[in-house]
Amino acid sequence: MADVLLVYKKNFEGVHDESLQSVKDVLAAQPDKIRVDIRAREQVRRADFIGRDLVIVLGGDGTLTSISHNIDSNTPVMGVNSHPRSGDPNGSVGFYMDSNIETFSQDLEAALSGNAIVNRLPRLQATIETTSGNKIRSDPAMNDLLVANTHQYAPSKYNLRRGDIDIKQQSSGLLFSTWLGQGAWFNQIARKSNLGNAEESQSHYLVIARDIDPSIEDGRYMTWTSEPTVITSDMHRGYVVPDGWDEYQFNRGATVTVDLSGPVLQLLTFRKSMNEIFETE
User: Fold this and answer.
1) Which domain holds residue 25?
2) Residue 126 pLDDT
3) Left, alpha or beta for 120 (phi > 0: left; psi -120 to 50: alpha)?
4) 197 and 247, same structural domain?
């Protein structure tokens, strides 16, 4: 019997309530195959995810990214779009949510039988080392990770090291991204510069300083790399923000190392791989 956790978006809108009830009905119809716990996104804790055979996330991409740091590399997760934009312009794109209410029953069967497509998504992670020697690891980021001055009106000052590069730099912060996690702002720059490719997406990540000198093309401000990026803070207070959620603060003199050392996320899809979905977006 599979041990399943369902996490849903709770915002008291009728469309999400209807989707939740539909998913519950499908799950309840298989009492001999699965044991299900149901949690609202706002109430879920790390302990809820331990030992699960499958995590089902009902909502949109924000619902998934908000709880994905709780999911380890051994637990498959499937995203179910509770309000697709294809049926309502006010709905969710649901880039990571390959299932929906109409396909959920058959997709669940594929997930439980091992016939789904398993996408092993690399995740970014930052390690902060304070001047006193303490080490703090951020939550893993499946989309993007920001390192910047906590006061966004003030410049981010730091020393940057990566491979042969070792320079002092000043910008509005450093934005790191996985191949699939390119946000709208980042996408405009990365695609125009032909940065990145799907073939290296398991080992490489994108990084851009948010103030770009277009005359510099040697990787100091913008690159696609497999090497760790190490910054030494020259800011009174900075922070690391993975996937736009929790913040990890650091002070002047701290070092922050960012790479793809985070645990992978086993995301299930059912008709195309995530790279194929990305190419059609």
Assistant:
1) 2-115
2) 98
3) beta
4) yes
